[in-house]
């Protein structure tokens, strides 16, 4: 409580009691929608966009008001989002397409592994390569602005949030690393990145006020308000803003504001989060793009920091008549100052210059008609090596949760395959992802390679596990038989399984944008399928295509369940990826990007708010204690801890060393933030203070890769027992071989947010740095003290 009060005082706010949260967070006094209190900062171009700033400013100075409005307001067109150009000044217009797993809705492109599957690899090279490869596909399809990546909204606070699989880790540090790399990967390929969704976007239920898609809209459109994420200053900084800061550092061209309200002001109108935090504190120079329907008001959004209205008046105006003609009129009558529109136009054009899109002739825009009335066209721009990359990420991300020695598969043997998830969707490869909800509950949906909504990308093909297992059997001499129905097959199971050496059951759970998962169960038929398998076989391997945690408690400890793999949503090469792991061609090294609880109730309460009220409120009362921080602080034993994952070999850790001679200044900032910090001896919050290193030895019999993790215990009363502050993957270590893992600790990694002084500081006292294979197995530790 003290902390929260200080937080408010620090913002120069007199405490009032008007808010419904007066006892917890004085939202009313924060006044987050007040653009007089939280004005837009002046543009400079930042560290890297100085030239672009000069060019964009000169161009905008030559534009009429109508032309400026044209480059800020969405219109109808072939892409998911479209901006009109200013042809007389050489601006042809802009095409914006989703999404984080590949170009959508466009054919002739790849379905990459989901963010979560990629996160589970903990492999910085693969995270970058996926984005870079995807970036080339965006570029080659004529897309100027990719509506990707997801960079911490959602972060994964709520286990049932149905979009967590689009993003990364339930941890700001690791998501920060992935945000930086994925923005850089896209932009190195020439397409502008849109980091999304800013900020505290952690549930779908009540995400917007319209009745268009959501069954939960109980009140008429306009009366219903979006869910308000209410969070204090410390939580904002230490948890939710962190990964967006990394996206800024990577030079993200754009940011997308989210659907929710933040502290009772619509995110896309929120002067405090957009003007003050993002453009001020983080020094963001690019443009803020509204999520489709996240803009509810022409004036509040403009003054609150929005720079690009999407889809604006496009999309058949189903979200209203936004900007365009309205903005013109509002500027002409003085309601919105013209220099605010100049600022927005410059922010949109700066990255266009910086990325060289003004010079480059992008290929013609290629979008499909089924979605938004665009021109027809099929152009396959996939590169030959992309399939291999998708396969590799799928295999490296597959997380081995249990193995009693049955894996890797011995050969030859009699294999029974069970479950419709092993094979093709009976109604078409992409039948689960084309629209927002298509994945008919009563259909056999086949291998779940991706979740649904705007995060889906069309699979050009889908290699199913059964395809690959059969092809393998030809080579290994195994016998294979598959039961690909999920129900009504008990008699078949009872006759096939006792005559099989091993049973591989494929199960899944569907998650789609717009609807949070009702629970954390597998598909309704799949627990029963596993139960039937364990009744007829003592060697059952379970493979799960899932968007996050699922309840495994009914069967996980059954001795007949001999191995379990979380294969996530792995993309078009699903079958190749999992069979690589099953046969040991790839030794599993995936580790959990979130905490896998034994019971849903073990997570903090009230993560998805579904109260039938016009102004639903989600109070982030757990504060900075999300995911493993909560489990550690509350002493709750999870089923599998954050960072957990098995291998076919074993690793030993030794020789921990903390070396201050490696200190160096920040070398990674493409753009710099303005975050304040106490330690005046450093030039940047991202300067490296020292390196911690350790030796990892492969103590088993097969080559393997290991993700070593570093956790810091920060000496401040309000901190969790430990927080992740480094990870390093050693790859393909031969039996008996050793390798060094090292972790650079930056000033920010040691800092906490001072709510009174509004800056980061390093607490005085002893820091413990622990290194090991997961958040709860940390064999090595060392102490570092900060005294002055
Ligand atoms: C809504 C989603 O939240 C966002 O991620 C996406 O980019 C837009 N729709 C456009 O499809």
TrEMBL record:
Catalytic activity, as annotated: Hydrolysis of terminal, non-reducing beta-D-glucosyl residues with release of beta-D-glucose
E.C. number(s) listed in UniProt: 3.2.1.21
Keywords for the protein's UniProt record, in alphabetical order: Carbohydrate metabolism, Glycoprotein, Glycosidase, Hydrolase, Polysaccharide degradation, Secreted, Signal
Transmembrane segments: none
MF terms in GO: beta-glucosidase activity
Sequence ranges assigned to domain Fibronectin type III-like in this UniProt record: 706-775
Compartmental location: Secreted
Coiled-coil positions: none
UniProt xrefs under Pfam families: Fn3-like (PF14310), Glyco_hydro_3 (PF00933), Glyco_hydro_3_C (PF01915)
Cited InterPro entries: Cellulose_deg_GH3 (IPR050288), Fn3-like (IPR026891), GH (IPR017853), Glyco_hydro_3_C (IPR002772), Glyco_hydro_3_C_sf (IPR036881), Glyco_hydro_3_N (IPR001764), Glyco_hydro_3_N_sf (IPR036962), Ig-like_fold (IPR013783)
GO cellular component terms attached to this protein's record: extracellular region
GO biological process: glucan catabolic process
Signal peptide: 1-22
Pathway of action: Glycan metabolism; cellulose degradation
Function: Beta-glucosidases are one of a number of cellulolytic enzymes involved in the degradation of cellulosic biomass. Catalyzes the last step releasing glucose from the inhibitory cellobiose.
Family: Belongs to the glycosyl hydrolase 3 family.
Name used for this protein in its record: Probable beta-glucosidase G
Organism whose genome encodes this protein: Tetrapyrgos nigripes
């Amino acid at each position: 409580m003290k902390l929260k009060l200080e937080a408010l005082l620090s913002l120069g706010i007199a405490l009032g009691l008007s808010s419904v949260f007066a006892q917890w967070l004085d939202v009313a006094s924060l006044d987050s929608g007040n653009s007089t209190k939280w004005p837009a900062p002046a543009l400079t171009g930042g560290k890297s966009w100085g030239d672009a700033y000069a060019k964009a400013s000169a161009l905008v100075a030559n534009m009429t008001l109508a032309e400026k409005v044209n480059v800020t307001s969405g219109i109808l067109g072939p892409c998911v989002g479209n901006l009109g150009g200013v042809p007389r000044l050489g601006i042809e217009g802009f095409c914006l397409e989703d999404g984080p797993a590949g170009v959508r809705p466009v054919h002739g492109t790849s379905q990459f592994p989901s963010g979560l599957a990629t996160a589970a690899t903990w492999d910085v090279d693969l995270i970058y390569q996926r984005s870079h490869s995807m970036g080339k596909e965006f570029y080659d399809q004529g897309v100027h602005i990719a509506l990707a990546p997801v960079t911490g909204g959602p972060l994964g606070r709520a286990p049932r949030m149905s979009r967590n699989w689009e993003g990364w880790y339930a941890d700001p540090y690791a998501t920060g690393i992935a945000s930086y790399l994925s923005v850089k990967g896209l932009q190195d390929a020439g397409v502008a990145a849109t980091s999304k969704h800013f900020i505290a976007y952690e549930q779908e239920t009540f995400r917007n006020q319209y009745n268009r898609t959501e069954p939960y809209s109980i009140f008429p459109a306009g009366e219903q308000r979006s869910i308000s994420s209410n969070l204090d200053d410390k939580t904002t900084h230490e948890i939710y803003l962190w990964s967006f800061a990394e996206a800024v550092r990577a030079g993200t061209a754009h940011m997308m504001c989210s659907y929710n309200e933040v502290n009772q002001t619509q995110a896309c109108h929120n002067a405090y989060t957009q003007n003050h935090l993002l453009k001020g504190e983080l020094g963001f120079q690019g443009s803020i793009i509204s999520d489709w329907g996240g803009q509810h008001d022409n004036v509040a959004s403009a003054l609150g920091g929005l720079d690009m209205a999407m889809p604006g008046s496009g999309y058949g105006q189903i979200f209203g008549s936004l900007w365009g003609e309205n903005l013109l009129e509002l500027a002409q009558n003085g309601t919105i100052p013209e220099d605010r529109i100049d600022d927005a136009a410059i922010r949109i054009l700066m990255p266009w210059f910086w990325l060289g899109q003004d010079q480059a002739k992008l290929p013609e825009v290629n979008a499909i008609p089924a979605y938004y009335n665009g021109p027809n066209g099929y152009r396959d721009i996939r590169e030959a090596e992309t399939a291999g990359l998708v396969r590799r990420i799928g295999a490296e991300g597959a997380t081995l949760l249990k193995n009693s020695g049955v894996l890797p598969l011995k050969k030859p043997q009699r294999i029974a395959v069970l479950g419709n998830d092993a094979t093709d969707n009976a109604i078409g490869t992409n039948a689960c992802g084309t629209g927002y909800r298509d994945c008919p509950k009563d259909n056999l949906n086949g291998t779940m390679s991706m979740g649904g909504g705007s995060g889906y990308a069309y699979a050009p093909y889908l290699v199913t596990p059964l395809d690959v297992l059969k092809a393998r059997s030809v080579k290994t001499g195994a016998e294979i038989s598959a039961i690909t129905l999920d129900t009504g097959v008990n008699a078949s199971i009872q006759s096939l399984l006792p005559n099989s050496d091993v049973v591989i059951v494929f199960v899944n759970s569907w998650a789609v944008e717009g609807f949070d998962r009702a629970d954390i169960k597998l598909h309704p038929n799949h627990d029963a399928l596993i139960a039937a398998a364990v009744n007829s076989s003592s060697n059952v391997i379970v493979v799960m295509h899932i968007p996050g945690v699922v309840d495994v408690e009914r069967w996980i400890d059954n001795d007949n369940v001999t191995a379990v793999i979380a294969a996530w949503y792995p993309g078009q090469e699903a079958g190749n990826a999992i069979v690589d792991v099953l046969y040991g061609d790839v030794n599993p090294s995936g580790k959990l990007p979130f905490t896998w609880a034994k019971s849903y109730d073990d997570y903090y309460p009230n993560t998805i708010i579904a109260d039938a009220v016009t102004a639903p409120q989600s109070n982030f009362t757990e504060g900075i204690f999300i995911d493993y921080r909560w489990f550690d602080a509350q002493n709750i034993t999870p089923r599998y801890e954050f960072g957990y994952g098995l291998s076919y070999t074993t690793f030993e850790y030794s020789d921990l060393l903390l070396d201050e001679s490696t200190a160096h200044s920040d070398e990674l900032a493409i753009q710099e933030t303005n975050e304040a910090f106490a330690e005046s001896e450093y030039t940047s919050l991202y300067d490296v203070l020292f390196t911690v290193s350790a030796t990892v030895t492969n103590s088993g019999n097969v080559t393997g890769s290991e993700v070593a993790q570093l956790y810091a215990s920060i000496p401040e009363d309000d901190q969790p027992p430990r927080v992740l502050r480094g990870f390093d993957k050693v790859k393909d270590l031969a039996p008996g071989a050793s390798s060094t893992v090292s972790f650079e600790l930056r000033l920010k990694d040691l800092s906490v947010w001072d709510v009174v002084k509004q800056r980061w500081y390093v607490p005085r006292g002893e820091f413990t740095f622990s290194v090991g294979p997961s958040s709860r197995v940390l064999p090595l530790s060392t102490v570092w003290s900060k005294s002055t």
